[in-house]
Amino acid sequence: MARISYRVRPETAVLTRGFDPALSVGAARPPVYRSSTFVFPSPEAAERAFGIVLGKISPVGEDRPDLIYARLNHPNAEILEEQLVPLERGARFAAVFNSGMAAIVTVMLTFLERGSELIYTQPLYGGTQHLIHQVIEPLGFHARSVPAGDANALDEALERSPNARLVLIESPANPTLMMTDIARAAVAVRRHPKRPLLAVDNTLLGPTFQHPLAIGADLSVYSATKFLGGFSDLLAGAVLSDDPELIQSLTGMRALFGNILQADECWILDSRLSTVGLRMNRQSKNAQRIAEQLARHPGVDRVIYPSLFKDPEQIRIRDAQTDYPGSLVTIEVKGGKHAAFEFLRRLKIAKNAVSLGGVESLVCHPMTTTHSELSAQEFSAAGITESMVRISVGTEHWRDLLDEFVRALDAA
Ligand SMILES: *Cc1c(COP(=O)(O)O)cnc(C)c1O
């Protein structure tokens, strides 16, 4: 790998790390190495590669083991992982997966031990919540939820969980944008006798606006399908850490589960990394202008957006751990579910679809789509109402979007 010996900033590192054109006939962009298996230069090299993978021998210095088989590792995953690292403040290692859910389930099944406890903030991404109820709890792990933003509840849950092994925070929570204090959770896990790991689902504000590893989290977890991918055309997941052993444990499990991100997807995703900061900054500026205008519209009961927070504790957390408010805006439309549906029906620029983070604006009704698996009690605990509409603001001109939202609200 071509290494620049002096330190460069993330925007430069992402375009200069991980790939040496001299190793690929001078190609400026990495080739896609579509090969399921890799030829060893000698039987001794094959023996050594397996010895390293099975932990029987350790590699010397910078000397890397030879590639074996693409389920374990392949060149495009290595390139992508090296280029992801500089984007995540505090990270030294990364592992890529074939979806965000693949990353999350691998984190859970790697670090939860027999009889151990998982503590998580609520609301969680719908798929993650479902995973806990359908897979993690039936396997015998104890899962305990605490309301997002409630640091005392998290402390108490840790006290009541002597075998806590993993704490999963999603901040801001989706779709209510409740923020949870990551630095305080990092202190709490270090006080616990079992020292559980702290994982943060950083999909909504990372890697540009929120930096969990820099404030004490052990793992930063992504659905790279969202902002990292940016164009709603691929599924991917990633986990970053500054601890090589944590990432090694994950890649060991990844080799068994077979959920490494494939070469083509790695190649597409690495082409998106240099623009993630540009896209997120534009999307956040658009969203802030739109949110602050919609807050004045008589057809809207409430706009939930970080720059409009009123709760002093939420404002404190926002200012402590986020750089910019991001591009998710949740509005409560006057007139309940009917009005929310009428609003959605009238949109043409913004599309009625789940997912978020892409350059195109997407709008959905969380209660009947992304969060429809929740029980009535979970809805009220999470603060999700039938009049809520979640908007993921893209890179269109903000005036066009605002005009459309205002027209749709006037009609609804
Ligand atoms: C989308 C999403 C996931 C799941 O990721 P996939 O790539 O769809 O598997 C997990 N967490 C959050 C916060 C998400 O938005």
Residue fraction in strands = 5-15%
Number of strands: 12
The end-to-end span amounts to: 57 Å
Task: Estimate the global geometry from the Cα principal axes.
Answer: globular
Order of helices and strands: HHHEHEHEHEHEEEHHHEHEHEEHEH
Low-confidence sequence ranges: none
The pLDDT mean sits at 95
By CATH, the topology of the largest domain is: Aspartate Aminotransferase, domain 2
Q: Judging by the overall fold, what is the CATH architecture of the largest domain?
A: 3-Layer(aba) Sandwich
Strand order of the largest sheet: 1-7-6-5-4-2-3
Helix content: 25-40%
The level 1 CATH classification of the largest domain is: Alpha Beta
Number of domains: 2
What does this entry look like structurally?
With 412 residues, this protein is of the alpha/beta class. It folds into 2 domains: 10-274, 3-Layer(aba) Sandwich (Aspartate Aminotransferase, domain 2); 276-411, Aspartate Aminotransferase, domain 1 (Alpha-Beta Complex), CATH 3.90.1150.10. Helices cover 37% and strands 15% of the residues. The chain has a 7-stranded mixed β-sheet with strand order 1-7-6-5-4-2-3, sandwiched between helices. Helix 3 (75-84) packs parallel to helix 9 (263-272). It is globular, with a radius of gyration of 22 Å. The termini are far apart. 47% of the residues are buried. The site of pyridoxal-5'-phosphate (PLP) has 16 residues, from helix 4 and helix 5.
